[in-house]
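Pipeline run #58 for the internal structure catalog. This entry was flagged by the ingest filter as a single-chain record with no existing model, so it goes straight to prediction. Upstream metadata was stripped on purpose; only the residue string is passed forward. Reviewer on rotation: M.T. Logging verbosity set to normal.
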Amino acid sequence: VQFVESGGGLVQAGGSLRLSCVASGFTFDDYALGWFRQAPGKEREWISCITRSDGSTYYGDSVKGRFTISTDNAKGTVYLQMNSLKPEDTAVYYCTLTLGRTCEGYDYWGQGTQVTVSS
């Protein structure tokens, strides 16, 4: 499985960014795409996931109401629209793929894209 992540960068608090991830190199029928992040010195934090089977979406409490996940299944792409960004959102964001029809855990992930939110 290969991932090409993009869209990270530097933004001021209150601003927005849209991350994109193209996932390829697989033929799974049932899977979910999502994101986790990791800030320096902190543990990984699961952010969001969307299932291919029925488009169900899930969010971590820290981003609920501010981030929106979506997919373009024809393009094998998952997006993360991030609004009302806060300095504590600063982290490397990783695209993930979970085998199956749920968002439990993740089996593959990409190289990550840096998001930095200045105060």
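catalog note: The mean pLDDT is 96.
catalog note: The radius of gyration is 13 Å.
status: ready for reviewer M.T.
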